[in-house]
Design goal:
The protein is α/β, with parallel strands linked by helices. The chain contains ten helices and eleven strands. It starts with a helix and ends with a strand.
Length: 263
């Protein structure tokens, strides 16, 4: 199997056309005709991850976050350039599945987070904060959940910490009300959807990387906020995407490993 074969399968299941405009999902550093020797699944492409792939004869790294996000004018001694040079030195390819994974309703970040955190029998209502249609397929961002039975803020906080294995020293939260029934979960940063969140009037927003002024908006709207950190919320990508790849018949004989940067 060549690398282009698995990329075609990924982009069939998670179409690049569904990615957000600002994004750079897809082939970051790829020689499409290379024979696939193995795959490493990780949240981000790092120097240590590249070395791990080399040690285990894996020539394709699939990350959630794109390794190349901003325009590159030259390859000097900055950290992104170092990663690109090391990939080329070892003949390792880098591919990302970012917002096209986030917005996927069937097997994306939000859906997998909800399934991990809540049992279906405990959910009274579940809908998307925003959704849209591309090529007759539904996509969406943000999950709005109404529980059958209310829980306290501290009960939900403990559930998040224990289920997602969060570091108490890195999370943050603002507790503006104690009883939680309606929850909104936005993987990554929730700042761009803050007006939609406030209009929904949830008891709590679970996200990360939110701007200071938006925290003030939540406070004045009596909406609690839980910052699980970007890593804390999205690190589930590693296991989820690994499981997706393992279920593909075309990869039955391909070595697939996971690498956690452990932030």
């Amino acid at each position: 199997m060549i690398i282009n074969d698995i990329i075609k399968q990924i982009e069939y299941d998670f179409p690049l056309v569904s990615s957000m405009d600002f994004d750079n999902s897809g082939s970051n550093v790829v020689n499409f005709g290379d024979e696939l020797s193995g795959i490493l699944v990780t949240l981000d492409v790092t120097l240590s991850g590249i070395e791990y792939a080399k040690e285990n004869n894996l020539n394709l790294i699939i990350s959630h976050h794109p390794m190349i996000f901003n325009k590159i004018r030259n390859l000097n001694n900055d950290i992104v350039s170092k990663r690109i040079k090391l990939l080329n030195k070892y003949d390792i390819n880098a591919y990302s599945c970012h917002t096209n994974y986030d917005v996927n309703i069937k097997n994306g970040m939000g859906t997998n987070l909800v399934n991990l955190l809540f049992d279906k029998v405990d959910i009274k209502e579940h809908k998307l904060l925003e959704n849209y249609i591309i090529n007759n397929n539904n996509y969406g961002m943000g999950n709005v959940i109404a529980l059958k039975d209310s829980i306290t803020f501290d009960e939900l906080k403990d559930k998040l910490i224990n289920t997602l294995k969060l570091d108490n020293e890195k999370i943050s939260f603002y507790k503006y009300n104690d009883i939680i029934n309606k929850i909104i979960i936005i993987p990554g940063s929730g700042s761009s959807d803050i007006d939609l969140v406030i209009d929904e009037k949830p008891d709590i927003l679970i996200t990360s990387d939110i701007k200071h002024n938006h925290i003030l908006d939540l406070k004045d709207s009596n909406i609690s906020y839980f910052n699980a950190t970007h890593y804390g919320l999205e690190n589930i990508f590693i296991n989820c995407f690994y499981n997706y790849l393992k279920e593909l018949d075309s990869l039955k004989n391909i070595n697939i490993l996971k690498f956690d940067i452990k932030l």
